[in-house]
Design goal:
- By secondary structure, this protein is an alpha/beta fold.
- It has helices at residues 12-23, 38-47, 64-74, 89-97, 110-121, 131-138, and strands at residues 3-8, 30-35, 52-56, 79-84, 102-105.
- Strand 1, helix 1 (12-23) and strand 2 form a beta-alpha-beta unit.
- It is globular and about 35 Å long.
- The termini are far apart.
């Protein structure tokens, strides 16, 4: 099964970090797209099916929440992960209430982040295996 992930952040180092972290999952049929702004992310979403959107809240041109709503028009089943450096309570509530599956503060805890990605895409859980895996190890 193919999985397409769109990473949106205006900081190049964050894009590279997330892309590199996703590469460690070694998913055979995974396509990763990057965009430095909401507008470019929308353009990318018109060219490709998007299964997972990983976006910063603060983007040039629009917020991550606005981007999420616009991408969901074209891809209603898309899963969303927000990353942010924002500490404002109203902004954080807006992200949580928008229907995202997770929100991570910068710096991103990579193990937790990758676990959410695996769960969101319905992949075999390699980061934090389920209890069934733990029981097999005990035996």
């Amino acid at each position: 099964m193919d999985h397409s992930i769109l990473i949106v952040d205006d900081h190049r180092d964050i894009l590279r970090l997330i892309h590199s972290a996703l590469d460690t999952l070694k998913i055979a049929k995974m396509k990763i797209f990057e965009a430095p702004s909401g507008e470019e992310a929308l353009l990318e979403s018109t060219r490709n099916q998007i299964d997972l959107l990983i976006t910063d809240y603060m983007l040039p041109g629009m917020s991550g929440v606005e981007l999420m709503h616009k991408i969901r028009v074209r891809h209603p089943q898309v899963k969303i992960i927000f990353i942010t450096g924002m500490t404002d309570r109203k902004v954080r509530e807006e992200m949580l209430n928008a229907g995202a599956m997770a929100m991570f503060d910068k710096p991103i805890p990579l193990a937790d982040f990758l676990d959410v990605v695996e769960r969101g895409l319905g992949l075999e859980q390699t980061i934090f295996p389920t209890e069934k895996m733990d029981k097999k190890v005990e035996e």
